[in-house]
């Protein structure tokens, strides 16, 4: 049996041999998943930290690929469910600062009172923007307690991912994040210039949007087709733009030739017939 104390939150935890076995199994599963993803994306893991906050485990992984460094925050619940968000180093620095502000606000709250909880459960909210990503920070309260929900979204659609940090663990989370940022800095690396502005065009009853963004895998263009309530999109990595351009130009030239031949064929006058 292990008895450990969390100085940041003032909470002591008793871990039995069964808990140790579950913890080790969870960590093995986590790293197996991590190694599989690393092989697929050629990402290099630079450092990692593990936090146990109440019944949840959090992994803070500093990674690097050809575009730069970033931090992956993974949450694994007691039931084994996993969720994760990605933070550029500069965004992680902003998040660290927000954690301090939310922690101070949380420390000034009184005991939970179901009569004073807002209808949406939100006690305090902030938002961060990085390139095409938005991060929503919501300190919430429900029947299970208070927690900080961090949601990550992508402009113009895309999946939403989120993690939920128990409020009493925000200081510990901030301190571990600070340790990583002190070691690796807040420079994201990769592209430093301004990305081109988005473009829009309308064809008949459809709208097409061209948005250039950047994430931990590099620069890309998202091409969205919108018709009424229907939306579909493709994402084209920057390294493929020139090939897409060449294919489109080739098709445009071929269609121009076809149209020219068709116009020529229909414009040839019929042979005049002389009366006898």
UniProtKB/TrEMBL annotation:
This is Transcriptional activator protein Pur-beta. GO terms for molecular function: DNA-binding transcription factor activity, RNA polymerase II-specific; purine-rich negative regulatory element binding; RNA polymerase II transcription regulatory region sequence-specific DNA binding. Belongs to the PUR DNA-binding protein family. GO terms for cellular component: nucleus. The keyword Transmembrane helix does not apply. Coiled coil: none annotated. Keywords: DNA-binding.
């Amino acid at each position: 049996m292990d008895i450990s104390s969390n100085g940041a939150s003032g909470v002591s935890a008793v871990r039995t041999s069964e808990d140790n076995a579950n913890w080790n199994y969870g960590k093995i599963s986590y790293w197996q998943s991590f190694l599989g993803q690393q092989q697929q994306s050629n990402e290099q893991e630079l450092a990692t930290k593990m936090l146990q906050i109440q019944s949840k485990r959090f992994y803070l992984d500093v990674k690097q690929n050809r575009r730069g460094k970033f931090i992956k925050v993974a949450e694994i619940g007691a039931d084994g469910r996993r969720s994760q968000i990605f933070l550029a180093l500069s965004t992680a620095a902003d998040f660290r600062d927000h954690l301090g502000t939310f922690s101070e606000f949380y420390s000034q709250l009184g005991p939970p009172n179901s009569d004073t909880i807002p209808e949406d459960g939100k006690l305090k909210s902030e938002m961060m923007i990085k390139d095409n990503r938005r991060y929503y920070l919501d300190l919430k309260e429900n029947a299970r307690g208070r927690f900080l929900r961090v949601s990550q979204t992508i402009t113009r659609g895309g999946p939403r991912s989120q993690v939920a940090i128990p409020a009493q663990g925000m200081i510990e989370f901030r301190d571990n994040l600070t340790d990583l940022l002190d070691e690796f800095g807040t420079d994201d690396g990769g592209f430093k210039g301004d990305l081109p502005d988005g473009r829009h065009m309308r064809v008949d009853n459809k709208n097409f949007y061209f948005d250039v963004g950047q994430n931990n895998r590099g620069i890309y263009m998202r091409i969205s087709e919108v018709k009424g309530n229907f939306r579909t999109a493709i994402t084209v990595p920057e390294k493929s733009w020139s090939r897409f351009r060449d294919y489109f130009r080739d098709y445009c030239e071929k269609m121009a030739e076809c149209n020219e031949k068709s116009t020529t064929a229909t414009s040839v006058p019929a042979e005049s017939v002389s009366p006898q």
